[in-house]
Every structure is written in structure tokens, then in C-alpha cells.
Specification:
This protein has nine helices and no strands. It is mostly helical. The longest helix is centred in the C-terminal third of the chain and has 35 residues. The protein is globular and about 55 Å long. The C terminus is likely disordered. Keywords: Membrane, Transmembrane, Transmembrane helix.
């Protein structure tokens, strides 16, 4: 676990000031959305802005950060690999949502009981562990060191898959526990709500950066540990 965290730290250290500035601006903007006055939040232009921001945060930002961590000179400019990355990201997000959705359906009738929150947390941790296998291919398509057409790309994780999956699960658990400790901000436009909303988004941003860095580390490990994975790889 410590080896993976050390690798992730080195990749995060590769980020330049402009990447950190972008991260602050975007997540600070997201922090302001829940506390906006209702007459502003419900306008057509604001809803359109939120829709565009969702695509930006879910797809383009992780793609850019992964490429920046891997040392690409122009990480913000998409290549054809972005299409592979977007597909892998959709599969990853869907797989992550399966267990929490099943738990939600289980408690849909309102009979959640006092342990509902623990069940949701457990479902998320298990989901993170089970889907950790997809992280290398997400970063591999973004950084162009792996392709989904390379059928044996996961073979590079043979000796270290368990610590990697455990690290991913632990990262999710820590993020959620810290997030649960933050008071939920209401919609009132007050300094208290603005502060706690920013704390909440800062935790999310930190988790996203860590997962991106772990994914890049795993992708490069898969590619480096077994050079045969690159034989016959399709042009990208």
C-alpha cells in the first residue's frame, strides 16, 4: 500500500501550478452551486452550465490530469485516445455504481434501519476494490501506454494486484469517512454553508487526484513490467 501511495505522490508532484489553479477554480465553482439563491440556480443558463460542467469534471479533467501526471507536454488537448478513455470511464463509473444502487433499491421502501449508512459505505468500498482493475486501462488509454485491445494488459499487475486494490479501497473509505464528518451544508447563502461546501469539494478533489495518480502508476506498471504487452498494439 505504501509503495502505491508513494508512486501516486510522485505523480501528483508532477502537476504544474496552472493545473492546481484549474482544480481550485473548478471545485470552488462546484462548491458554490448548492448555496446559490434558488432564482439563480433554476435559470436555464445555470442548468446548461451545470450540464456542461458535469462532462468537464467527469471526463476531460481526469483525462487531462492523468496525462499531466504522466509528463505529456500538452495534456489538455485530446487525442483519439480520449474516445477510448471516455468509454473506459463510463464502464468504470457504471461498475462503481452497481453495488450502491442495489443497496439503495434494498432500502427504497424506507425501511433502512440505523445501519443504512454503513451498508452504503460498505457497498462503496467493495465496489472500489472490485473495480480497481479498470483503473489501469482508464489511465492507460489517456496516457497511451495501454489499449483495451491488448488482452493481457492486467498481467502486469500479477504480483501487486492485491495491494493496489486494497489501496484503492482504503482511499475510498478514508474519503467517505471524512466526507461523512463534514456538516451537510444547506441551501442558504451563508458563510458557514459556503465554508463547509468548499471543505466537501476539497475532499472530493483530493480523492479524484489520488485515484488519477494511482491509475497512472498502475498503467505504467502494467506497461513496464511486461514489455510484450506492447507487441502488436494498434496505432493510436
Amino acid at each position: 500500500m505504501l509503495t502505491w501511495l508513494s508512486a501516486a505522490r510522485s505523480f501528483i508532484a508532477n502537476l504544474r501550478p496552472r493545473h492546481w489553479l484549474l482544480l481550485i477554480i473548478v471545485y470552488s465553482g462546484r462548491a458554490m452551486l448548492p448555496v446559490l439563491p434558488a432564482d439563480v440556480a433554476q435559470t436555464e443558463w445555470m442548468r446548461a452550465l451545470q450540464t456542461g460542467a458535469q462532462f468537464f469534471v467527469i471526463f476531460w479533467m481526469p483525462y487531462m490530469f492523468m496525462r499531466a501526471m504522466a509528463g505529456h507536454e500538452r495534456p489538455a488537448i485530446p487525442t483519439l485516445g480520449f474516445l477510448w478513455f471516455a468509454g473506459a470511464a463510463v464502464v468504470f463509473a457504471f461498475a462503481m455504481a452497481v453495488l450502491p444502487t442495489l443497496v439503495h433499491l434494498r432500502f427504497l421502501n424506507g425501511d433502512a434501519g440505523e445501519y443504512a449508512q454503513a451498508w452504503f459505505l460498505l457497498a462503496g468500498v467493495v465496489g472500489a476494490i472490485l473495480t480497481a482493475r479498470l483503473l489501469p486501462i482508464c489511465a492507460g488509454t489517456a496516457t497511451e501506454v495501454l489499449s483495451p485491445l491488448e488482452m493481457r494488459w492486467w498481467a502486469g499487475m500479477a504480483d501487486t494486484a492485491l495491494p493496489f486494490c486494497f489501496t484503492v479501497g482504503a482511499a475510498y473509505l478514508v474519503w467517505k469517512l471524512l466526507d461523512m464528518a463534514v456538516p451537510a451544508p444547506s441551501s442558504a447563502f451563508t458563510m458557514r454553508n459556503i465554508f463547509w461546501s468548499h471543505v466537501e469539494q476539497a475532499l472530493t478533489a483530493g480523492y479524484v487526484l489520488l485515484i488519477c495518480a494511482l491509475a497512472v502508476a498502475a498503467a505504467q506498471h502494467c506497461a513496464d513490467i511486461n514489455p510484450r504487452l506492447q507487441e502488436g498494439a494498434p496505432p493510436r
